[in-house]
Specification:
- This protein is of the alpha/beta class and 156 residues long.
- It has a domain at 50-152: Nucleotidyltransferase, domain 5, CATH 3.30.420.
- Helices cover 27% and strands 17% of the residues.
- It has 4 helices and 7 strands.
- The protein has helices at residues 20-34, 76-79, 97-106, 128-140, and strands at 50-51, 63-69, 84-87, 90-92, 117-122, 146-148, 151-152.
- The chain is elongated and about 95 Å long.
- It is a single-pass membrane protein; Single-pass type II membrane protein.
- InterPro entries: ExbD (IPR003400).
- One of its GO terms (cellular component) is plasma membrane.
- This is Biopolymer transporter ExbD.
Length: 156
């Protein structure tokens, strides 16, 4: 029979941290690739209308958004509660839409310009008079490809 003895004098070896930087950089790379940056901070209330027949846009990079709705509470002291138009990150008037469309058109290449789409994200409580004014201004700017954003209706 052999004698079993316990080695009390030996310590556990330290944990190797040599691969720790590799793991950190893999996680960093994963989050950099999978994260999308927010392009515009929406400053108006957005409860989109419901629709049953929806289709997705093919190239979202060719879409210019116009947001219409009641300003969020932090902007209501300055702009009031009436529905406002937001172009990019700032509030605008109907007259500013032509300049906005021209700037968006200039930012695209010549081949992409015919495929540009203007998407209207209009709050469900906004009156159609303001939307009609926006559409008239889009006609003046020769932006005739218009899309209305909506959310899918829930079947009950």
């Amino acid at each position: 029979m052999s004698k079993f003895r316990k080695d009390d004098g030996k310590e556990l070896p330290p944990i190797s941290t040599a691969s720790l930087p590799d793991i950190v950089f893999m996680l960093l790379f994963f989050f950099m690739v999978s994260t999308t940056m927010r392009e515009v901070t929406v400053n108006v209330s957005q409860k989109l209308p419901e629709a049953t027949e929806l289709s997705k846009l093919e190239k979202k990079s060719l879409v210019s958004y116009i947001y219409i709705g009641e300003p969020k509470p932090q902007f209501q002291k300055v702009f009031g509660k009436a529905p406002r138009i937001q172009l990019n990150d700032q509030f605008a008037n109907v007259e500013d839409i032509t300049d906005y469309i021209t700037a968006e058109r200039e930012a695209r290449t010549e081949a992409e310009r015919p495929s540009m789409v203007t998407s209207l994200k209009v709050d469900v409580n906004t009156k159609m008079g303001l939307v009609t004014d926006v559409k008239q201004e889009l006609r003046k700017a020769a932006a005739l490809n218009i899309n209305y954003s909506a959310r899918k209706a829930v079947e009950r």
